[in-house]
Write a structure and sequence with these properties.
428 residues, 3-stranded antiparallel sheet, binds carboxymethyl coenzyme *A, acyltransferase
């Protein structure tokens, strides 16, 4: 017999179906509750609300488990490539050799952006934040590909938008970096691999050939893979909810980029390095900043610590911490903020406030130190998060469309004024 839950409201009892996921996750299905009883549920921040059934990412925050399409993040970070993982999350299976070659070739054909888009770069003030530029430029792609606006596009037509966006994002991101430096842009090379091509456009010079240390290429793959998807987080939920109105892929992802920008979400990677720098400038006293983070009258939070879902080590943080040590050693970089980060982590993990609240380092705690060692400035960090998250956003948008999910439209409990009569201005 299938499991049900019952709820008694105002003396009447209602049976609610229980949904069980493939990893035995349980959910009470309340989708008919309002029709039957007139009641809704209230869950600010959606801390306890499943918005969808998804087959993309499994996350167990208590155990610190993260899997894309069933594959453990540790294995993918160690053995796979970013493009292969992108294929996996978007299409559901690891690609055959042939499928991967075709995927790469299809992407390589679309890496150029329309020359007119260069005018956008010219229009941004030189100090504009890269995330603002990125969301604007990704949204603007819809103007150049109006066929993407068709809400009834076929799966094949949607796939063209998917390939187009995957192909153009590295070009856009690297041109944002070039703009910030006042350097001429480097055009994509269509015979290169995705990550190498990106590095070449970011760090290459129009005046010569560039080669990259395999350590750098490997680090870039790892970082991007670790960021690919994280189920229904703030930016991904944004992509799904915007897409649920039948908005096109570019508009949906552009909205996701804006959601990611905030320092409580992807913007934390920039905030972490700025916090570590501030601690260093202030004498490097980790305890002083721990005390600030615990003081309820101080708005300061320990950036890169805590997570809505993980109540254990973020498995991505474990991999990144190790990668950080390896990369700094291999590149011979001695970054003094790494010592501060380690001291802060150790102090926090032994502090009752952090222990009680199960606050552990998250993915953003060490990633900025690696990005910096690779040569990125801190304002680019969240853009790199977005580049890594792109396949996840695409996969979630595609799944939402395939499931024909209804438009996202939460309800509310109204707590404002009850009906009152308008008072003319002269009487107020
Ligand atoms: N420093 C100090 N206290 C914290 C922190 C922190 N970083 N994070 C949570 N707390 C405290 C919070 O004050 C609250 O204490 P109390 O119960 O006494 O009121 C308790 O822990 C629970 O916090 P919450 O804000 O209710 O938890 P949440 O699930 O709503 O927020 C979070 C999760 C990630 C927004 C939060 O932990 C945070 O602000 N962290 C710092 C920003 C950060 O690193 N964000 C990146 C998240 S991982 C990557 C991503 O998702 O993009």
């Amino acid at each position: 017999m299938s499991e049900t839950a019952s709820i008694t409201l105002n003396g009447s009892s209602y049976e609610l179906p229980v949904i069980t996921g493939t990893e035995n996750e349980k959910a009470v299905d309340i989708s008919k509750l309002r029709d039957q009883s007139g009641y809704i549920t209230l869950d600010p921040g959606f801390k306890n609300t499943g918005a969808t059934k998804s087959a993309i990412t499994f996350l167990d925050g208590e155990e610190g488990i993260l899997r894309y399409r069933g594959y453990p993040i540790e294995q993918l970070a160690e053995k796979s490539t970013f493009l292969e993982v992108a294929y996996l999350v978007i299409y559901g299976e690891l690609p055959s050799q042939e499928a991967l070659l075709k995927f790469r070739a299809d992407i390589n054909k679309q890496t150029m952006i329309h020359e007119d888009m260069k005018n956008f770069f010219a229009g941004f003030p030189s100090k504009s934040h890269p995330m603002g530029q990125l969301s604007c430029l990704v949204g603007a792609l819809s103007a150049f590909y109006p066929e993407s606006l068709n809400p009834n596009a076929t799966v094949e037509e949607d796939n063209e938008s998917i390939i187009n966006l995957l192909a153009k994002m590295p070009t856009i991101v690297s041109w944002i970096q070039k703009k910030s430096l006042g350097h001429p842009v480097v055009y994509p090379k269509n015979n290169a691999n995705y990550v190498e091509n990106f590095l070449n456009m970011i760090f290459g010079e129009v005046t010569g050939e560039s080669t990259f240390d395999p350590v750098v290429i490997d680090a870039m793959h790892k970082l991007l893979i670790l960021h690919v998807d994280h189920e229904q987080n703030c930016s991904t939920s944004t992509v799904r909810i915007v897409g649920s109105s039948n908005a096109n892929l570019y508009a949906s992802v552009s909205a996701g980029i804006n959601a990611l920008w905030g320092p409580l979400h992807g913007g934390a990677n920039q905030a972490v390095i700025e916090m570590l720098e501030a601690i260093k400038a202030d004498g490097g006293d980790a305890d002083k900043y721990l005390a600030k983070a615990k003081d309820k009258n101080d708005p300061f939070r320990l950036m890169g610590f805590g997570h809505r879902v993980y109540k254990n080590f973020d498995p991505r943080a474990k991999i990144i911490k190790k990668a950080c040590d390896d990369i700094l050693e291999k590149l011979g970089v001695n970054d003094p903020v790494l010592d501060i980060a380690k001291r802060l982590e150790e102090a926090a993990l032994n502090d009752q406030y952090f222990v009680d609240r199960k606050l552990y380092p998250n993915v953003d705690f060490y990633s900025g130190i690696i990005y910096r060692a690779l040569g990125f400035n801190s304002e680019m960090f969240t853009v790199l998060f977005a580049l890594g998250r792109l396949p996840g956003w695409i996969a979630q948008w595609k799944e939402m469309r395939a499931n024909k999910e209804p438009i996202g439209r939460p309800r509310q409990v109204y707590v404002g004024a009850t009906e009152r009569d308008y008072t003319p201005l002269s009487e107020r």
